[in-house]
Write a structure and sequence with these properties.
Blueprint: H1 2-20, H2 39-44
């Protein structure tokens, strides 16, 4: 529980800092790499190889 509480406080602190000063995270991604994954294709043609 203590670890979870520390994590929650850290996330709240990061969110607050992001709202107050968005330029403080210059390398943070603004948009996702994949806008909308194709779930039907992934189900029909799964990639079952593991790459390191």
């Amino acid at each position: 529980k203590e670890t979870l509480d520390m994590f929650i406080e850290s996330m709240k602190s990061i969110a607050k800092k992001g709202h107050e000063d968005p330029d403080s995270f210059p390398d943070a991604p603004r948009l996702p790499k994949v806008s909308r994954p194709d779930e039907a294709r992934a189900a029909r043609q799964p990639i079952l190889r593991w790459k390191k």
